[in-house]
Amino acid sequence: MRKLLIHSLWIILFAFQGCGSKGPGASELALQITKSVHNYLGTPYVYGGRSPKGFDCSGLVWYVFRQHGVELPVSSYLQASVGKKVDFSELLPGDLLFFRSGKRIDHVGVYIGDGTMIHAPGRGKYVRKANLDTDYYRRHFVMARRVL
């Protein structure tokens, strides 16, 4: 019953969030960052990577935001303390999404609108888009933050 309720809440949030690729209220800088992160689709995952030769999740976020003059910490755990927390229903392109598979935050992605993010998912994989409406992301989602 609890699992069904959680799934239903996610469906409601997606249905009413109204977040397109140019969501209302997204700053011009956030839209530029969202556009820039697309440039790294297909880049290989490299643990600790912070360059177009290879990224880990937080390195991708750090690098793309830095290209636009926004300094962030390097780790996803520390990135989760920057900016202001936003409800999932209020996501805008450029917001950061944080996940955990253990006791603390260990993954971050950039929300690009329409219920999707771009992230560096892990060893043996490449920077890619991900649909947030999956069991995995629903179970592991912790919070979203807006730094712009």
Q: Spans of 5+ residues with little confidence (pLDDT < 50)?
A: 1-23
The helix tally amounts to: 5
Number of strands: 8
Name the structural class. Answer: alpha+beta
CATH-level-4 superfamily name: endopeptidase domain like (from Nostoc punctiforme)
Q: In angstroms, what is the radius of gyration?
A: 14 Å
Q: What is the CATH architecture annotation? A: Alpha-Beta Complex
Give the total of domains.
Answer: 1
CATH class: Alpha Beta
Strands in their spatial order, largest beta sheet: 3-8-4-5-6-7
Strand % is 15-25%
How far is it from the N-terminal to the C-terminal residue, by CA?
38 Å
Shape: globular
Biggest beta sheet summary? 6 strands, antiparallel
User: Averaged pLDDT, please?
Assistant: 87
Question: What's the CATH topology name?
Answer: endopeptidase fold (from Nostoc punctiforme)
Could you state the order of secondary-structure elements as H and E? HHEEHHEEEEEHE
User: How much helix is in the residues?
Assistant: 25-40%
Describe what you observe in this structure:
The protein is α+β, with helices and mostly antiparallel strands and 148 residues long. It has one domain: endopeptidase domain like (from Nostoc punctiforme) (endopeptidase fold (from Nostoc punctiforme)), CATH 3.90.1720. Helix content is 32%, strand content 22%. It has five helices and eight strands. Strands 3-8-4-5-6-7 form a six-stranded antiparallel sheet. A two-stranded antiparallel sheet has the order 1-2. The longest helix has 15 residues, at 2-16. Mean pLDDT is 87; it is low at 1-23.
